[in-house]
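To illustrate this point, we now present one chain and its tokenised fold:
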Amino acid sequence: MPDRSNSFKPLRLQNPDMHSALVRVQNVFGFFTTVTFATAIVVASSVTWIPQTPSAGIELRNVQVVKGRPHYHSPKREEYAHIKFDLDADLTSLFNWNTKQLFVWITATYPSKTASEPPSQAVIWDAIINSESQKNPSTPFTLYSSFMNPPKIATRAKRTSKPKKPETELAPGLLQLHNSKPKYQITDISGQLSSTSNVTLELGWNVQPWVGALTWTTEEGKDWGRWRGIRGGRSKSFNLPALKVKGVNQEAVKGSGKPEKVAEASPVVK
């Protein structure tokens, strides 16, 4: 009887593409993206353990209500408000290793003409505050540029002059504005703003991280973990002045080319 013990051999499936260069590149790329995604999650979630204690104070300095064209491209004459303010804010706790830049703004909030509608809001000032890593990025390109273009050394003695006082640069997040002019004028859809009551100025911000989700203003009293709500950040309520036609100073409206005959700057602060 013939021996058949060696006749049954296991079938081996051979795939010539199993260890090809393309498959290896795909495996390395997949491993790299997985590690990058996991690292981004760790970095984005780690900032929740960093305490945030923002504080700010806003005070009204002056307000004017003018009737004219607030912009050169405005199709009609309407009432608009020009508000000057003081701002003293400390938002340094919003900056950490994952903060790219901070977008800050001030809004003027006042009741709408209709009681059933929510209050109206208009931005009068905004700014972008870059972090230190955004101001001075450390990348291979910047390192190469600094190596190829070293700072020049003066060879000739220049005339001595009085040394200029170095300007003190505030840390990112510190805002100190005194009698600051607004960037934007306030207008209303109705075209009327004079004698508007219960107007307040409020500070808001948006943190833009390197990786992760955007975070917005944390209102006072609404703490979230180690993130505290803003302390202050809202001015006292005031009234916009009434519009007068006679007995007031003339003010030239930008873009109109003619001075308008309405202006007033006596707010009523409660």
